[in-house]
Write a structure and sequence with these properties.
By secondary structure, the chain is of the alpha/beta class. It is built from eight helices and seven strands; from the N terminus they run βββαβαβαβααααβα. A five-stranded mixed β-sheet has the order 4-3-5-6-7. The longest helix has 15 residues, at about 60-75.
Length: about 210
């Protein structure tokens, strides 16, 4: 199957009198937590258009939905990149691992977290390479941010942005601890930083 929705960056090419922008689709497992975070990136709208959606679908279903959306957009305004954001949670290992294989075969990027997205938030404050209970993530974040943490908080990007470089380095360091990459078993681990670095390429100069 041809992956016709992907093109190289095109914002420096001109068609007629109109410059083309990159177009990025981000499909999230969570309906609010992850979309609220990614929509806050102060992107330069002259360079990129992002379509962030919270679907409620998980792992393999999310990847399959991304494929359908990519195919539907290919005849009109194709996406340059498609990302799926999801957690390990307690989903069957088969579905989780299959999602990675299907995504790779269709040139879809995955930003995953094992166990949950809140690991990315915690890495802004300190390096953590020990598996912890899911409920402990919220307790630690409440301590770090100085107020109760709510999953659907719309202000997390602004609250954490000054510590983002720290989170990126901690996420990379965490991945380096594993001899071979096995997202289903590597607890804790995350590749959210890869999507964050992609979006940072399009940050508006006025916000830096």
């Amino acid at each position: 199957m041809a992956k016709v929705w992907q093109k190289k960056r095109s914002y420096n090419r001109r068609v007629g009198i109109r410059y083309l922008r990159d177009r990025i689709l981000i499909l999230c497992e969570g309906k609010k937590t992850e979309p609220n975070y990614f929509r806050k990136f102060p992107l330069n709208v002259e360079l990129v258009e992002i379509d962030v959606r919270g679907t409620g679908a998980n792992t393999l279903n999310l990847v399959e939905a991304a494929i359908r959306r990519g195919q539907a957009a290919s005849e009109g305004r194709p996406y340059n990149q498609i990302w799926c954001v999801f957690d390990r949670d307690s989903f069957p290992p088969g579905n989780f691992n299959r999602a990675f294989k299907v995504a790779e075969a269709n040139r879809i990027h995955i930003a995953y977290s094992n166990q949950c997205f809140e690991l990315w938030y915690i890495l802004h404050y300190h390096f953590n390479d020990a598996a912890i209970d899911r409920n402990e993530y919220a307790r630690r974040l409440t301590k770090f941010i100085g107020r109760k943490y709510y999953k659907n908080d719309e202000n997390m990007y602004d609250l954490l942005k000054e510590r983002q470089d720290n989170a990126i380095q901690n996420a990379k360091k965490l991945l380096s601890r594993y001899v071979s990459c096995n997202p289903e078993k590597d607890d804790p681990s995350t590749t959210i930083h890869k999507l964050v670095e992609t979006l940072n390429d399009f940050i508006s100069e006025d916000s830096t």
